[in-house]
Amino acid sequence: MTDQNFLELIEPTPKIESKKCKVIALLLAFFLTYSPLLIGVIIWYLYDYFFAGASLLITYLVVGIIRSQLRNDVIPINQREFHYTDKAIATWVVAKQLCSQPKDEA
Prior knowledge:
This protein has helices at residues 19-46, 49-74, 86-98. By secondary structure, it is an all-alpha fold. It has one domain. The two termini are 34 Å apart. The mean pLDDT is 85.
């Protein structure tokens, strides 16, 4: 069998079992999705629509950088070319970094 016939298996998005970890993943996904909009609305209410538009663009860029950094930290290298939603990225982060249990070596 040659190397050309070899298909790499894709690791599925991990399942989170505990309720605490599910809440953390939901909050992280909410932050990644809605924080630019929330910050833009707050700035618009406090100051002006011009500042709100500028802050919306800046926070969208900052959250995009945070999102890509989180994605590159936890998703395996051979799967980085695929598109992941904010919820999937949050699930990977929580499952791999925050709620990972070491496997017992027996």
